[in-house]
Records
---
Amino acid sequence: MFSMGIIGFLAGILFRKGLLRRSRGSLATFGAFAAVIIYGGIMNPASAIMYHSEGLNGKILLAYYVSGLPMDLVHAAATVVFLLIAAEPMLEKLDRIKSKYGLVE
């Protein structure tokens, strides 16, 4: 949950700064990057720490990164497909909620 929260927080910051555009391609690219680099970068070492807490070294961490890469790539591909299909309807609903409840700046 922490890594997903960090991804959402980072997306919000990047959008506010103007570095993340509100388009399907931009969101899909960020989603793929976040799934592999941020989510995998947090969860793969977490797995290594949970199972090898006494003898943790660079080789073990590298093994977990390499063995987790296929899952990270599948996660990234699924994120891209989902965002390409559902980004616009989700953003429209969020805009409606923001205007309905007066959350617009």
Note: The chain has a mean pLDDT of 91.
---
Amino acid sequence: MAIKHGSKVDKSFSSSAMTDLMFLLLIFMLIATTLINPNALKLMLPKSSNQLKDKAITTVSIQQKGSTYNYYVELEQVKGIEGVERALQARLEGQEDPTISLHCDKTVAIDEVVKVMNVAKDNNYKLILATQP
């Protein structure tokens, strides 16, 4: 009387579940990286070969609309250069070595850039002019 063993171990491996998981993770990462956008304003930054590695605490953006200029501090629109100064003082109060990143379109007059530079100098803030590599 021969006894047959009915339970044999299947040595094959199915990778379809792992493939599905990797595909879902890839889609999640693609969607997440498109949502992370530090600059929601479309600005044509000037080109430069020098890039600093300093991390700015806050950003100031200047955008020209016709003959007027719009100022933004961390994507929040403020009124005039006085509004920029008040917003920066509120955001950078108590910060050690406060650093500002200045983003301005190529078409913005240098006078407007100098106004923001003067605000940074008067309040002892470090200023970085953002450029395109």
Note: Residues 61 and 103 are 5 Å apart (CA to CA).
---
Amino acid sequence: MFSLGWAELVLIALIALFIIGPKDIPKMMYKLGKIMRRLSYIRYAFTQQFEDFMKEAELKEIQDKAAARDEDIEGRQP
């Protein structure tokens, strides 16, 4: 996604050190970690909902095909 090398990471760290300050960096990293963890959970929940929806759609499609096949078999019997 992002192409960051060591030089860019060091530059970002130095800018953060000057702007945020050495005392507040641990607090900021903790908050950033909480945000990243929350985003990861949201992504997981969304993925699970999508997978559940797809499984239900596939199951419904299989049931519809089976019902159509059963109706076709019943219609052929004398």
Note: The two ends are 64 Å apart (CA to CA).
